[in-house]
Every structure is written in structure tokens, then in C-alpha cells.
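Side project, low priority. Logging it here so it doesn't get lost.
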Amino acid sequence: MDDPSRYFSDDVDEALGEFLAGFGFSRLNTSSSRVTYERDGVLISFAYFVEDLPSPWVAIDVGLSQPDDSQHLVGLWRALADEEPARRYPSWRFVDRASLDEVLQRIAREVLAVHGPRLWGSATALEALVAEQANEAETTFLRNRRQADLLRARRAHDEGRFQEAIDSFVLMDPDTLSATDRRRLYEARKQVGDVSRSEM
């Protein structure tokens, strides 16, 4: 496989730059693996990931720049319905410059021309996508943290560190604890003499 870092940004600009310029976009910044265009705070970015070599795909992100120059980007696929053929663009892989050019032409024709104006024409739509991604990230973070808390509480119980088990279990909503975990909490409280009459 050719090394895409030698040609990726040039090919993206050659295949998509003029198309995007027709919608008022200009190139904002570029690296060997990412090219970003901007129009009035609206961003569209194209990249590949080294870890996907030798057959990467072209990741398309859309989003908004912020007053502090930070960027909030989300995968364009989030804006496409599951049944929409263009949502399969992550499966369009390239292995050399010729196949990259083919992928970029498909992106221009089947993704950007069809779905782009709806997205970059509405800051509200982009803000909604950014918020959706942020909510999913927060939900995932909380779920992972709760799982870590549960494992810590169970380990403390099993190793006889009952006060630590209690302290961990009570941080969680008791209604979400399984019957087994409620039993562990009861047993830990019993061991430290902290079982109320209502629990007995």
C-alpha cells in the first residue's frame, strides 16, 4: 500500500475543495491525515486513521467552531438515517491513491451533494448532533463509572473490607442494585453492626 500521508490532504483538496468552495467553504487547516474546511463557524473535516491501515476509510466530521477556537465535531453518519445508503461511507475503503480518489468522488456525489446542504445550512441541526454525542458520552461515562463502583464494592465485600463495601454500595441508587448486591450490602452492614431494625 502507498503511504497516504504523502497524498491524502492534496487529494482531498483536489477532489472536494472546489465543490465545498461552491458552498462558501474555505480550507481552515490541514495535516498529513486531516483536512478541515470552514464557513461562518461551520466545520467539515475529512481524515483517515493510521490504525486502520492498510485499508483506511475517510472519516467525515461536521460541527461548529467555538469563540475560544475549540472545535466540536461529530461523525456525519450521525445525521443519516440507518437505512440511508450514504450512511455506509465508513465501509468505502482505500488502499492507494487511485482508490482514495474513487472514494472521494463517491463522498462528493453520494454524501455531500445529497446531505451536506441540510447540515451545514442549519447551526441548530449541528448543535443537536453535538448535544446528542455529548449526551451519549456522558451516559457511557456514568455507566462505566457505576460498573467500576459496583466491582469495587463487590471486591471490598468479598475481601472482608465491609465498611468500604458499604461506602461504595450506598453511593448507588438502591433500586438499581441486584438482589445479590443488596444481600452483600446487608451482610456488610451486619458485619459492622449497622443493620437497622427495618432490614432485619
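Brief comment: The CA atoms of residues 11 and 101 lie 7 Å apart.
Revisit when time allows.
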